[in-house]
Queue: 2 jobs
Job 1
Amino acid sequence: MKIPYSAIRFPKTAEQQWAFQVNRYVRRTRELTQWAKTPSTASNSKIYWGTLKGISNVTAPLRLSLTPYLSSYLESSPVINNEGNSTYSNSFSYNAGADIKYGIDDRFTIDMTLLPDFGQVQSDDKVKNLSYREVTYDENRSFFKESVELFDKNNLFYSRRIGKIPSGFYSLDSQLNPGETVDENPSKAKLLNAIKLSGRTDHGMGIGVFNAITDNTYATIKDSAGNSRKVLTEPFTNFNVLVVDQQLKNNSNFYIINTNVIRDKHYDDANVTGSGFTISNKKHL
């Protein structure tokens, strides 16, 4: 197995010392085997990893990658008219965009995505929710899964709200006039772009900045005469997360996180700030 140096962050020093760990998990017996044993109560398992030595005089290459994409969709769905006859409605669409990753240095990396298409991502199982709590789903989109450890503080950042089902998706029928029908009702807000900057300074301060923008989402309504009008179901929205995490002695830490959502039109905005800390002794307890 080969891992390119461009996929790893490491400092520009003559002698490299990297943390190293090997895990083997057997699901049928629920057995976990580790090369460097880690206590199950450890808040940071990486401090128990082994040290990989013998790597020297290695030059870190430029960490820059550009991945463009082009996708197209042809959909055919049955439509039943007022007389009970069944026909098929065909639609064609295409998308184009790109993903960019750039390593500023061995500490900080910028990830960007422009007009992403998540059509190949695993779909969610339908869940009937009769409670007042929001149903939370696992994140399957790669951009929102990679390099997001800094943003997982206090469970304030829930990435599935970005590109979610428009807030007016289910209330569209109540806005119909006599003789009108829903011609088009997008089930997801369109993500225009997203960017995240993450890394940690030489003094142990982790900094994370995340920003994403979704476009206005409109539904199309037609009347019996063929006239159409658009209804806004989700406004132009900006999502922002800022995290500062300072490592302290004995694997202790202190962090501050701020999440902010700004919506266009008359929709509500939101701003939440949280903080926390962990204190450990020399035995990491």
Job 2
Amino acid sequence: MTFDAPPCASHRMNTLMETFAVIGAGSWGTTLADLLARKGYGVRLWTRNPELSRLIEEGRENKPYLPGVRLPENLTATSSLADAVEGASMIVCAVPSHGIREVFKDIRSRISGEALVVSASKGIEQGTHLTCCGILEEVFPEGVHGNIAVLSGPTFAKEVSRGLPAAACAASRSGEVALRVQRIFSTPYFRVYTNPDRIGVELGGALKNVMALAAGASDGLGLGNNARAALITRGLAEMSRLGTKMGADPRTFYGLSGLGDLVLTCTGELSRNRRVGVEIGRGRSLGEILSEMRMVAEGVKTSLAVRELAAMHGIEVPITEEVCRVLYEGKSPERAVMELMTRELKGEL
């Protein structure tokens, strides 16, 4: 069952007066651009690749990243950043976290202070330890900061693009901005909640990818459902511990962008981070796995940034530590599991 409720004619007339830009034509960026276009908004989808832009325009499909989804005519593709953001009243960031700074510094002077800037990316920048919204705040002048928001939750692009029910949350320092993002993105199949805890929402979306690497490795080793459940549960505790220390509301980690996204990413067959973990558990090297992937597994780079953040705040993150040692220090997944299981005994709470 899918939910496909095209907007009424009057809604289309109103929304087509607004133009939005989606920066990043991977599976999630294309899905969000498609969702907005189907609501009647004019949407420009930016890709770095001119050939991909041409293929989308001519074939009405992003075959490499979202095959089988026909894109509406009011969605246009471009490889020009300037053309993508010109006059846009909302800019959606859907590029990998490590590319945000480079891409957005080239267009900051072209974006008006009234435009919404919505991060749909998940990750933590190495070196600065900033979340995606934090990077955008460094890139954009202060006048834009109040209009920055994040959209995050348990959302596989393939399922959202098919109109299958999903939920996410919009968070911003401004309650009014969060409400605007909620109204813009909500559809009969994509339900958006608001949340005032932007840092918690962002940390949930970033940290769960590290836990998915661990859960995937457990599955790759064939350790069973009990082990996966334990990793998810203790992973949530680790996420909440670090997030609370950084000023997040602990309740956020039991919501859509925390527990919801964690469960999906640790168990779903469409999860890129879980897939990397599974292959690591089966004995393959990280370099070999990544060389075969078209899309980015954010947890691979985020794990290092999370370990550094935890050290800065004096927080224990044993799962993240072991993920880093397996990915970057040559430790075997089997030994990592053994050391997690034989840590000093302690109380759960």
